[in-house]
Design brief:
It is a single chain. This protein has three helices and five strands. It is α+β, with helices and mostly antiparallel strands and 103 residues long. A three-stranded antiparallel β-sheet has the order 1-2-5. It has a two-stranded antiparallel ribbon with strand order 3-4. A hairpin with a 3-residue loop joins strand 1 and strand 2 (51-58). The two termini are 26 Å apart.
Length: 103
Amino acid sequence: MATVTKKELIDRISDNTQAKRILVKRIIQSFLDEITSELARDNRLEFRDFGVFETRTRASRIAQNPKTLERVEVPAKRTVKFKMGRLMKQNISKPLATTEPVK
């Protein structure tokens, strides 16, 4: 599995749209900042056919330190849940393309 960075995505989008790289970078960063801001306000974000982002609160719990075996209370915390949309589900469920050796 390869890792794709934000820089690589910016470069691809810039090449595909013929837009200046700095403009694409500002737009993507602004988009990501808005997503973060809305989730921080506990709002749900829905992108049709792509997916839905929403926050969930995990309950506090008692855990155990594996080294000392001491019990530790883990406080409640908010996390982000993502649910795939229809088109993403279809594309993800397609079999991976395999490369076969040329004979």
